[in-house]
Design a protein that fits this description.
Two copies of one chain form a homodimer.
Chain A lengths: L3 E7 L12 E7 L8 E9 L3 H5 L20 E8 L9 E4 L6 E4 L5 E2 L16 H14 L6 E4 L5 H12 L3 E6 L2 H9 L5 E4 L5 H8 L4 E5 L5 H6 L3 E9 L3 H4 L11 H10 L3 E4 L6 H17 L7 E5 L4 H9 L6 E5 L7
Parallel strand pairs in A: 8-9, 8-11, 9-10, 11-12, 12-13, 14-15
Antiparallel strand pairs in A: 1-2, 3-4, 3-6, 3-15, 4-5, 5-7
Helix pairs in contact in A: 2-3, 2-9
């Protein structure tokens, strides 16, 4: 217990894209658990787009990380010391320990992970928050029907790939958008999308129109920006748009090109009777979480739901990997092997 | 039947605000009904904001009025000759006869009006399309709950005044926005709004914040533009926004002030889990029309639902009255007395 622990703290609130100097890695003495507490060792740290929001102090559904505070994040952790009768040394748990090697918990909010269901890193991926975000938003708001067309961007990511595959399981036709030829290829070859497009193509808009000859009935919005502009004219009457993330906007700091794009969006909402609805995954847990575990767990087991993970080694690499993710440089669910984690 | 009939046709598609020269009044020979047809005499012609949309040929949920075509519109008409066994001379009907003194109909889509329920002009107002738009959008999408706060603009108009009163009947607290002191006064004194504001006040935003100390749970969007910008920061988590009209946008032709307001709206949709949903009243008829007639009919009969009508005399005045309505110059439901109609 005398070994040194490490953590990543927020140094400054970025305007626009985060820089490496917005983060600092610190050493601290490994804490000891008090009465009723457990000591956790982080195995896997999840990196997710929502964390960009936590770095800013604008209006949000959640409090920002304080300056000097540890960056927030979900982890797969191991209980290495326990004064809590609910947990034994060696237990694997899903935790919100953040960007650090060790953390103390009173046990509240920890979820035990059964390593027999799937590899444990999926607890922060396809079987965790991203997978559930896809599942709940798609079924509660998107409501894909047999024969309809669904579109999702960042489609090789942990949310997008689940959206496409779950829509397929409902009989819809999934069209995926990603950046770069390798990702685009993976969408059809690995994840079963009916069509896949590169949003960097100069004729992306035309390609999207061609790939959706019957229009778009469900657009799962997790990027915002240019993809939304391409999708908007293709949406069918009564289309549904779950809004789960706006990663393309998170880094936007300055003014745009002088065009106010709100009137066109509002006009489309009215003239096409669109439903545009934001959601936070945990608000939908009561209605959908049990079904999610059952259906997606079974889908992984029998191979109908696939996923891709992108591993980074060491907490020292977390900030750079996070910055890269906001630029789309990851390929699959981005996970940091923090300390003693081993690739499966 | 040999008397001359009159109609208003569309001469040109306005860019921005319609001008009187976009319309032309024409005389035509009163038509004679063929087999199975009826001849209608227009008593009341309804003027509504959606008609501005029909003058343009941009994307919409409905076909535009062709150049040279009769302006569309709902009417209260009298059957003055009938070759249709379903209708007798003297029957009063709700029709889509348009801006003209006489029309031929095969009887399809005509709805008989019972003059004993309420004065017949309400068939194009509080008991007609505007009232139903308010009722169905508010209950299907807005879902006001006991103790919540609802906001509506153009609140002395036929949609807005119904929205506020129906929300009140559901136990919500209605806040109305209108233009000018007379309208603002009517909102609290006549229609029972808990608070009323003038959107022309220089400190309108501050006033709206003061009038909604618990935030806004339902915003019934029927104007767009500046009111939406004032409402957005005050919306509570999980607020619902039925989008019924964007009259402040209908006339917008040129670029704005160079600010792209879409990112802030999308961010609010995400961070507050908002539901923003457009609708067309007739799509909600199957679920809500019968209940609407029952509840609003009873509300009018017992005085819990009030309404205001603004009458204009003669088809010659229709285009000017319509242009004025888009600027908010009417006070209550705008109706043209076309030919032989009499004020109640």
């Amino acid at each position: 217990m005398s070994q040194s622990a490490k953590r990543v703290v927020l140094v400054s609130r970025p305007v626009g894209e985060p820089k490496p100097t917005d983060f600092r890695i610190e050493e601290y003495a490994t804490p000891a658990p008090g009465p009723g507490e457990v000591l956790l060792r982080t195995i896997w740290l999840s990196l997710d787009p929502y964390m960009r929001g936590r770095m800013s102090d604008g209006p949000s559904y959640a409090q920002p990380v304080p300056i000097g505070g540890v960056m927030e994040g979900g982890t797969v952790s191991e209980v290495i010391a326990s004064n809590n009768p609910g947990f034994a040394k060696g237990d694997l748990v899903l935790s919100r320990a953040g960007w650090q090697t060790h953390a103390i918990s009173d046990g509240k909010g920890l979820g035990k992970i059964d390593p027999k269901i799937a590899r444990i890193s999926t607890a922060v991926g396809v079987l965790g928050m991203p997978g559930f975000t896809a599942y709940a938003g798609l079924l509660e708001i998107g409501k894909p029907q047999e024969g309809e067309t669904g579109v999702v961007a960042a489609a090789t990511g942990p949310v997008g790939s689940a959206v496409g595959q779950i829509a397929n399981l409902r009989g819809a036709r999934s069209v995926g958008v990603a950046g770069g030829p390798d990702k685009v290829r993976a969408l059809t070859e690995e994840f079963g999308f009916a069509a896949a497009l590169d949003h960097r193509s100069p004729d992306f808009r035309d390609q999207l129109a061609e790939a959706t000859p019957d229009g778009i009935d469900v657009y799962f919005e997790n990027v915002g920006g240019a993809v939304w502009q391409a999708v908007l004219p293709l949406l069918n009457n009564f289309a549904r748009v779950p809004v789960s993330g706006l990663v393309a906007q998170y880094n936007a700091a300055g003014p745009g090109d002088g065009t106010d794009r709100l009137p066109a969006t509002m006009r489309a909402i009215l003239s096409k009777s669109l439903t545009v609805r934001g959601f936070i995954n945990y608000d939908l847990a009561a209605d959908h979480y049990a079904a999610f575990l059952r259906e997606v767990g079974a889908g992984i087991a029998d191979g109908r739901i696939r996923y891709r993970e992108d591993f980074v080694d060491g907490l020292e690499q977390a900030s750079e990997a996070f910055i890269g993710m906001l630029e789309g440089r990851n390929f699959g669910k981005l996970i940091v092997r923090v300390d003693g984690g081993s690739k499966p």
